[in-house]
Amino acid sequence: MVGVKVTIEGGELTAAITKDAVTDLRLAEGSPVVALIKSTEIALATA
Q1: Which of 6, 27, 38, 44 fits a disulfide with 13 by CB distance 3.0 to 4.6 angstroms?
Q2: Which neighbouring-strand residues pair with 8?
Q3: How confident is the model at residue 47 (pLDDT cuts 50, 70, 90)?
Q4: What is the DSSP string of 1-47?
Q5: Close Cβ partners of 35 (under 8 Å, ≥ 6 residues apart)
Q6: How many CB atoms lie within 10 A of CB 15?
Q7: How far apart are CA 38 and CA 10, in angstroms?
Q8: Which pTM was predicted?
């Protein structure tokens, strides 16, 4: 697993994806991405 951070206006999204997904998507620092969010659970922490 790999932690991926996506900078968005007003904050940051963090996702856990597999190393294979990083390779398949050819992700590198600064790569443009589209974040699709599908979840049945949300964990919150203080800022």
Answers
A1: 6
A2: 11
A3: confident
A4: -EEEEEEETTEEEEEEE-HHHHHHTT--TT---------S-------
A5: 6, 8, 13, 15
A6: 13
A7: 20
A8: 0.68
